[in-house]
């Protein structure tokens, strides 16, 4: 970011100055910035299931290098190839802080997608201009900013129509994408599982359908237009330019096929889940805003090595790990894809099955980032999407356990404020471990209790069964007698059935 541009209507976004808690634009390792702090921070424990972003980014970079610019050095390449973007937002309602935070977030999203953010502009308007998103007079100022900074892409903080995108591109002579395309692009880069990839492609095609005619044409006329070619750059990866050119019917067909695939994969996952449910292992789902520290908390609670990165949408595939309560009961803990303000509805639809799984858990662990500029807005955005998922169904959301994370990253004053705003929340730091023990207790408290009271005398030869009662049930008393272990416990019906085989005199019934 360079200087602010300020006048009555066009308000510069001094995003760098907002970066005190690592929420600004600087220092966040973008996928291209391979030596960035985010990347090194996660280097130690990456589970097999989720290979590092580093690897994906590296691959992407090498591909570009070999196909386009094989004869120049990597540094030169990166300067040429990295999108240099200018952000622009229309501020229609809310406070100036909210408008700033939205654009700062757009900047982090852009960096996550591998772009370099040069400048951010916000225009105060009652509503976006139907033709050019920002007012036509301001388009010229934006064009000047673009030229002055040598930018090659403009990213708009909203969802634009095909007409708006086309007109802006014609006037600005650079590629124009919107927030939705950017988020879809990040998802396309990050999706790893077959299901995740299908879900993202589906969402991208649904986004592209109404925009097929026109958008991008302004640029393809330009010599070396960046919207075309291999990879297409930010906002145009995934289905990409070649698929843009196939006709609607074929896209429709592809969408139908993907839908079917997603449904099929959903069935597989449901079966797995049902198997878990049949075992009646209680489940906890971690939900929350992207980068709130969900994966870090999963690691802190279970000791798992799930990918953690200071990048948005590091996690796209739900990961399930085993957790144990302090009194030894098992439960499952599932990490989920993060939420973001204005999560494209195409993505909500595409990820519905994944999110539904979270919503079917016994407890929702809702993680909020204390160090965010607007933690309350994070909570609101997450609850909104969760509400959308259960909308029109008689299913209700599981009880929510709100967790304020990154307590180490804010001062006492802000912590006190958050405690006041969210009196029910548990305040933790996944990084230092503060509060994690309390959190584990709180989870244990909220898990459904096994409800069949049994007394059984288990012969010493049945040590494995004793261990199982400890793991799955709640042991009320345990005595070692001459005949075996005398247990009084609350267990779930299936285990009660097994234990019914043992009378209190220790013989199998
Ligand atoms: N200071 C501080 N940083 C934290 C804490 N917990 C997580 N972080 C950092 O926050 C960033 C995001 O953490 P993740 O666990 O990947 O967050 P996430 O919610 O899983 O993010 P996505 O999967 O991208 O949605 C990483 O850089 C973490 O190191 C904490 O308690 N304190
Ligand atoms: Mg994560």
UniProtKB/TrEMBL annotation:
State the superkingdom.
Bacteria
Give the GO molecular function terms. GTP binding; GTPase activity; metal ion binding; ribosome binding
Where Mg(2+) binds, per the record, is at: 295, 315
Please name the InterPro entries in this protein's record.
G_HFLX_dom, GTP-bd, GTP-bd_M, GTPase_HflX, GTPase_HflX_N, GTPase_HflX_N_sf, P-loop_NTPase
Cofactor requirement: Mg(2+)
Domain named Hflx-type G is located at 282-451
| Protein localization | Cytoplasm
Q: Which UniProt keywords apply?
A: Cytoplasm, GTP-binding, Magnesium, Metal-binding, Nucleotide-binding
Instruction: Give residues annotated as binding GTP.
Output: 288-295, 313-317, 335-338, 405-408, 429-431
Region annotation (Disordered) ranges: 12-37
Gene Ontology annotations for the cellular component aspect, listed alphabetically: cytoplasm
- Gene3D superfamilies cross-referenced by the UniProt entry: 6.10.250.2860, GTPase HflX, N-terminal domain, P-loop containing nucleotide triphosphate hydrolases
Task: Provide the function of this protein.
Answer: GTPase that associates with the 50S ribosomal subunit and may have a role during protein synthesis or ribosome biogenesis.
Self-association state and partner proteins as the record states: Monomer. Associates with the 50S ribosomal subunit.
Family stated for the protein in its record: Belongs to the TRAFAC class OBG-HflX-like GTPase superfamily. HflX GTPase family.
NCBIfam families in the record, alphabetically? GTP_HflX
Q: Which HAMAP family does the UniProt record give?
A: GTPase_HflX
Protein name (Swiss-Prot/TrEMBL): GTPase HflX
Quote the gene name from the UniProt entry. Answer: hflX
């Amino acid at each position: 970011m360079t200087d602010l541009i300020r006048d009555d209507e066009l308000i510069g976004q001094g995003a760098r100055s907002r970066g005190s808690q690592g929420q600004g634009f600087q220092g966040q390792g973008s996928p291209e910035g391979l030596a960035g702090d985010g990347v090194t921070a996660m280097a130690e424990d990456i589970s097999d299931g989720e290979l590092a972003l580093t690897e994906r980014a590296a691959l992407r970079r090498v591909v570009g290098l070999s196909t386009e610019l094989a004869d120049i050095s990597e540094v030169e390449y990166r300067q040429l190839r990295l999108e240099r973007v200018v952000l622009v937002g229309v501020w229609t309602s809310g406070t100036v802080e909210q408008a700033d935070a939205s654009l700062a977030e757009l900047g982090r999203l852009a960096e996550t997608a591998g772009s370099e953010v040069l400048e951010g502009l916000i225009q105060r308007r009652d509503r976006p201009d139907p033709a050019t998103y920002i007012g036509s007079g301001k388009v010229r100022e934006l064009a000047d900013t673009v030229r002055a900074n040598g930018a090659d892409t403009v990213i708009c903080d909203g969802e634009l129509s095909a007409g708006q995108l086309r007109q802006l591109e014609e006037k600005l002579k650079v590629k124009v994408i919107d927030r939705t395309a950017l988020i879809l692009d990040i998802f396309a880069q990050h999706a790893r599982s077959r299901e995740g990839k299908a879900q993202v492609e589906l969402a991208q095609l649904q986004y592209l359908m109404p925009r097929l005619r026109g958008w991008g044409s302004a640029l393809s006329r330009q010599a070396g237009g960046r919207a075309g070619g291999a990879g297409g750059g930010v906002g145009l990866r995934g289905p990409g330019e070649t698929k843009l050119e196939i006709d609607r019917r074929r896209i429709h067909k592809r969408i139908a096929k993907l839908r079917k695939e997603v449904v099929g994969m959903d069935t597989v996952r449901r079966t797995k889940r049902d198997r878990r449910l049949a075992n009646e292992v209680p489940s906890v789902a971690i939900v929350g805003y992207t980068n709130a520290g969900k994966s870090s908390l999963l690691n802190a609670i279970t000791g798992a090595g799930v990918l953690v990165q200071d990048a948005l949408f590091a996690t796209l595939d739900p990961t399930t790990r085993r957790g144990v309560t302090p009194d030894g009961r098992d439960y499952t803990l599932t990490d989920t894809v993060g939420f973001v303000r204005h999560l494209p509805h195409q993505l909500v639809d595409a990820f519905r099955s994944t999110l539904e799984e979270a919503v079917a858990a016994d407890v929702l662990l809702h993680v909020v980032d204390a160090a965010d500029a607007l933690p309350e807005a994070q909570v609101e955005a997450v609850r909104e999407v969760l509400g959308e998922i259960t909308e029109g169904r008689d299913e209700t959301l599981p009880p929510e356990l709100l967790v304020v994370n990154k307590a180490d990253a804010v001062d006492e004053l802000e912590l006190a404020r958050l405690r006041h705003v969210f009196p029910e929340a548990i305040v933790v730091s996944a990084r230092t471990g503060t509060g994690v023990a309390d959190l584990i207790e709180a989870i244990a408290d909220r898990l459904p209790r096994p409800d069949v009271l049994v007394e059984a005398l288990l012969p010493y030869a049945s040590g494995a069964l004793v261990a199982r009662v400890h793991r799955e049930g709640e042991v009320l008393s345990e005595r070692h007698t001459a005949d075996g272990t005398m247990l009084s416990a609350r267990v779930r019906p299936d285990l009660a059935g097994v234990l019914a085989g043992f009378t209190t005199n220790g013989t199998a019934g």
